[in-house]
Amino acid sequence: MTKISQRQLQQAVEADIITSAQAQNMIALWQDQIDESPTFSFSHILYYLGGLVAIAAVTLFFNLGWQYYKGLGLVTLCGVFSVVGWGVARFLMQRQFMLPAGISFTFVICLTPLAVFGIQHMLGLWPEKVVYSDYHRDVKWYWVYMELATLLVGALVLYIYRFPFMVMPIAVTLWYFSLDATVLFIEDSNWDIRKRTSMLVGFFMVVAALVIDYRSSREKDFAFWLYIVGGLTFWGGLSLMESDSEWSKFLYCMTNFVLVVIGAVIRRRIFVILGGLGVFGYLGHLAFDVFKDTWFFPISLTILGMGIVLVGIVWQKREAQFVQWLMLRCPAGIQTWLHKIQ
Length: 342
Fold this sequence. Notes:
Layout: H1 6-14, H2 20-36, H3 42-57, H4 65-94, H5 98-110, H6 112-122, H7 144-160, H8 167-185, H9 191-215, H10 224-239, H11 246-266, H12 269-290, H13 296-328, H14 332-341
């Protein structure tokens, strides 16, 4: 969906498409949605920067603190942080600062694994050498309790307060859980199994995001973080696959090309970026491995690149006609779905 700025509305007024009063009414109608939607404004950058710093403090960078607070102290500390975070979120909601309120609720969700770790440590269920910082590095079966609790709390808070940013820790925890659960059920799971698991879980995350995209409006983009985490998980697992077959590598390139097309159709840049990286990776393989001593390969690649640019120019000029032509040849259900998510 294209975003319309105030400058574009003013241009419409100057072109006598709409009146000045209509433009002001549109701005007033959309103002609340604009305030809630993430943009690249300085205030929103500060919101996310501050929120991510606080979240990182209790997740990625909480390394030796548990040794000083131990189990009960750690649970108490998480309880205090949760009450403060929840109170700040409610305070911001009452004053219509929805975006930072959602970040504050997300901070509370991110405290869950640390609190569960403290409870288990207090009950003597953890070996002394196990530290919380390993949660983000090591794939172990005993993290699943923390992950299940995080998913439960995240789903509950998301059900009560519907803020899209809350999906971020839920999506990341789903990825963690898929890897740790694999170790739990398959004792001799190797690196290859984990890569396949990541690819499969990422695929289902993307499918879930598509379903959410279809069932919800774009005013609050609940599918965004599922697309990000799911896309990265799927593409990462796919890209780490190793094969000596050139056909497999070519299939990898074609899969990435399909990701680019999908990203263009559903207007999700993450797939375009990941697919583009995959295609460039395959071209690098051709340049440095397959055709490393062939003089005409760089020339052929240059011609191909210029051809792609030409296709882009033609696409920009005739995108609407092509999309309409494609829509008319899709089943009615797919047409409705594509109109819904664009």
